[in-house]
Amino acid sequence: MEVDEPALPPAKRSAVPSLENPDRPTFGKPTYDGVIAGKVSGRKWKQPRKHRASALRASVKGTSFEERQREKEIKSAYRERMQELKETIRQNKVEKRKKREEAEKKKQENILRSGTKLQKITNPKTLKKIAKSKQRKQLKLVPDELVKNRK
């Protein structure tokens, strides 16, 4: 089996003389009439390009300077408004948290005042005994004002 010379890429193909004009070379395999006449595709009816395909479309015009400025102002106003709203939300949350803490504190004081019996223990021996026993869980440190207000 004989092997023909391998098919080379288009750039490396050797020129074949044209059948009509031997001085004019033809590239690639000869077509039905044997003449490609210099066009790679072999289509004689195909016109060579005179301009780029990208030049067919009209370029899109950008927005004017005034429009860009107006859009910029709108965006900045939007951003400022968002910042203001976030700040008000944050302030509201802080106020609510403070109110909640105040109410919780007041509630604890009321519970200590009314719900439990408060007794001031001054004897250190009694404190030692209670600290060693199971009653130490019942001990609570209470500010002096609460004990004074009760009496």
From TrEMBL:
It is found in: Chromosome; Nucleus, Nucleolus. Keywords: Chromosome, Citrullination, Coiled coil, Nucleus, Phosphoprotein. Its main location: nucleus. Residues 41-54, 126-139 have a biased composition (Basic residues). The keyword Electron transport does not apply. One of its GO terms (cellular component) is nucleolus. Residues 111-125 have a biased composition (Polar residues). Residues 1-57, 89-151 are annotated as: Disordered. The keyword rRNA processing does not apply. It comes from the Eukaryota. Residues 89-110, 142-151 have a biased composition (Basic and acidic residues). Required for proper chromosome segregation during mitosis and error-free mitotic progression. This is Coiled-coil domain-containing protein 86. The lineage of its organism: Eukaryota, Viridiplantae, Streptophyta, Embryophyta, Tracheophyta.
